[in-house]
């Protein structure tokens, strides 16, 4: 199964780190973020990878090459201008004949994509979105009321959210719903949702979008601690 890994963005929210380095190539624990993505795909048995690249793409291709040393096969689709997430895969319309995946090259996750594929195929949907379940506690107790009468309290309840992780499974017919330079989240998926053709695959494992400078610096520190404790054999 082909997997499109989108790695062409400029990462403007992570400047100054991304002034000369594409966001997926920022280092964590001695290797780029994109390498964690590729290694997880390999663990799931997904080895046919297409990297959509643009900004500073030579750094990506120089590091990963054809993917052989990482145990995968890598093909590159180079954007000469900003195509946005959905538009970046449009050149493959008519070339992809089976179910395929799309995911970001700058997110950290251990999602089991092979399990998601089984769910998707069973559902018969055109599109399946991986939804990360997150529970956030409120800082205060919440009153339960019936009209103006207080009937109970819930102390610091957990609010559950399902985040769109931008990990997608699609059938080839999805290309018919994509226009040039469109975005999956803003343009394509809302149209598909309106037609009732989208399923959600909920998972509880690990997913992080390293979208801000504070996020990246926190992860650099975290990975440094992990490396240190590993060296000390705690």
Keywords:
234 residues; alpha/beta; Spore Coat Polysaccharide Biosynthesis Protein SpsA, Chain A; 7-stranded mixed sheet; two-stranded antiparallel ribbon; 28% helix
Oligomer: single chain
The amount of helix comes to 25-40%
Number of strands: 13
Morphology = globular
Strand content: 25-35%
Structural class: alpha/beta
Q: What is the fourth-level CATH superfamily?
A: Spore Coat Polysaccharide Biosynthesis Protein SpsA, Chain A
The CATH top-level class label = Alpha Beta
Major sheet strand order = 5-4-1-6-11-8-12
Q: Kindly state the mean pLDDT as a whole number?
A: 87
How many structural domains does the protein architecture include?
1
Distance between the termini: 40 Å
Task: Characterise the protein shown here.
The chain is α/β, with parallel strands linked by helices and 234 residues long. The protein is 28% helix and 32% strand. The protein has helices at residues 33-43, 57-64, 84-87, 113-123, 184-194, 213-232; strands at 2-7, 27-28, 31-32, 48-53, 73-78, 100-104, 107-109, 127-137, 142-146, 149-154, 158-170, 198-203, 207-209. The protein is globular and about 65 Å long.
How would you briefly describe this protein structure?
By secondary structure, the chain is α/β, with parallel strands linked by helices.
